[in-house]
Each structure stands twice: as C-alpha cells, then as structure tokens.
Amino acid sequence: xxxxxxxxxxxxxxxxxxxxxxxxxxxxxxxxxxxxxxxxxxxxxxxxxxxxxxxxxxxxxxxxxxxxxxxxxxxxxxxxxxxxxxxxxxxxxxxxxxxxxxxxxxxxxxxxxxxxxxxxxxxxxxxxxxxxxxxx
Length: 136
Fold this sequence. Notes:
Strand order of the largest sheet: 2-1-3-4
Order of helices and strands: EHEHEHEHH
Largest sheet: 4 strands, parallel
Radius of gyration: 13 Å
C-alpha cells in the first residue's frame, strides 16, 4: 500500500441505479470506520442502460488514491468495456485491475477488505473468494 492510501473500488453496471445501490450497500455494510473510495459507473452518459468508457474512466480517476483501483462488473459487455480500457493503457489509473468476482457479494468483500488497509491483491482475492459463499 502507498502512504496509507486505500484501494479504490469502481462498480460497473449496465444500470446507474444498480451501480449506485450496490455502492451504497457495500459502503454501508463496511461500517462507519474508514471510508473507502467507492464510485459507481452505471449506464450510459444519457442515463440509459449500457456501459460507458467515459463514466468508467472518470469513476476510476475519482477513487484513485495511489494504492490501486479494483473494478467489479455486472455482465459481459461491462467486462469487455473495462478490458478495452485496460488495453488502451492510458485511460485508467496505473495499477487498475478488473476483478473476477460476483457483483454484489464481491463488492461488499472488496470494500470491507479495502477498509482494513489491505493492498490491491488482497482486495482482489477477497472479492474473488465471494464466488464460494454458500447460501444454503
């Protein structure tokens, strides 16, 4: 981790409402201690369903504190949009990672883990581990 900076979290959904709600849920469940930089990037610039490279890049820039940025996505084309941004190399902050994790559970795990001051690899592992959460 860099100078006590926290890992930033970007939540990319095809719906602005879903991205915003998952961000609210994750930060709420993380408790009232350390405030992790979390930004939703949902929908298109015009407010429709879809994904937007511009909204994702702006969200990533807004949560970048120098410790890395974890990006979680909801569905396939959101993944493709983030991969395209990563491939371009200059649209997202350095040390930005696309995290393979379930959207809601992974977001909660990522934010809770980031709040402990964990590094990007640990935040990514915690979010990915959410695939193993059983509900029965």
